[in-house]
Specification:
The structure is a single chain. Helices cover 23% and strands 31% of the residues. By secondary structure, it is α/β, with parallel strands linked by helices. The strands form four sheets. Strands 7-22-23-21-20-17-18-19 form an eight-stranded mixed β-sheet, sandwiched between helices. Strand 5 and strand 6 form a beta hairpin. The protein starts with a strand and ends with a strand.
Amino acid sequence: MTELLTLEVGPMAHGGHCVARHEGRVVFVRHAIPGETVQAAVTDGGASAKFWRADAVAVLEPSEHRRQHPWPAADAAAAYDAGTLPVGGAELGHVSLSHQRRIKAHVFRDQLARIGDISSDALSREGFDPAHLTAEGESRVTALDGDGAGRHWRTRAGFAVGAGGKLAMRPHRDRALIPVSSMPLAAEPIADSPLFGWDFTGAERVDLIAPGGRGPVTAIVRVQGAAPGLEQRLAAAAGKTPEVGSLIVARAEDSPKQRSTKRRGVRRPRNLPVQVEHEVLWGSRSVAEPLPLPVAAPEGPRTHVDLQAESFWQIHRGAPEALTAAVDRMASLGPGGSAADLYAGAGLFTAWAADRVGSGGRVLAVEAAEASSASAARLFDGVKHAEAVQAPVEQVLPRLRRCDLVLIDPPRAGAGEKVLAGVDASAPAEIIYVSCDPASFARDAKALARLGWHMRDLEVIDMYPNTHHMESVAVFRR
């Protein structure tokens, strides 16, 4: 039987849970709001555990900021009443959007102070743009919502495959499969797609993509091993479903080295690569994402970037415009200047930089992922002042010398001290750091401070409403 605790809920911590205490033990509570009194079901605990985890399933004293959850499948109270668990992916949906942003501002402040040794007073002293700070001097989280309830912003959504081959999602830190019939946070072509009624038996995962937030949808069906009849069934369904523009099967196979270890009875090492073969059953392998700024090419402006469907692109439909606008406000880069775009992906910020410096400048885009780098190379083909290099960032650091601007947009883990030391050694005029995680950003901001760099402006953007995630853009100068 699930243990229920009555808890007075404390502050929100990074990760989407609040901190509470029960008989001296820390309990991380999801689906609560600071200041509430709740009944919480223990999801992970035990007498020897240092802390417990729990879901708030009944609210005894609600916050004034509590609202009806926009997605019943992710609503903890509704899920527990139905005898199931809430799916992950909308852990703040029970909080009003304005209060979500206040909570995120507090979390960001705490991460900067605790990990980065950067106080709110330090931010206000640096002369930040007042629009980016609250009256108390904390970072203001800028709204970037979908339809006013924080819905319909995701252009990409991934699902597991559950019973009957139907799309499903997992609860937080749980392997259970909960069937879903919609995804309200996703752009409209995905949110209530006919694909929720398809039979994906034999597949492990299905990724749905609506480029630019528009249809038709591209579906990537991920398969491990044999899946008899799956491809024929999907191809037949796609031919009758105009809402599906492309259908791709991604089949994972062991690499030759993995097959060799299996034959010898050796347990497969985790870091051995997995080969993935993509087969287009319907439509195209690539998607076209709109660019905020066109790329000036010899034959005329290029307004979209073509990338393989599985390649990275910003997940919020408004993110490319919002992020490039934030970078544009902070950067001092001008005509004839030079810039390096590290972790460049398919070239979103490279396109901005190429427009800023013009034909008399130079821009270098560095990306390790082969498919994304190839997309950037095609985008800038014939554009003489922009170059795309496919390589790990660490290998290209010696080429950065005498850049006016180095832009860093690393994965969630951050750039790390080795990359930051290499950027520092290249002596750029300024560094712009785009981050999707406040903890890794705070760590890297502290490392930059040790190298003599000071944050001169910071904007935090609510790019993932109804979740605990956020994006930030900061500029550093000596």
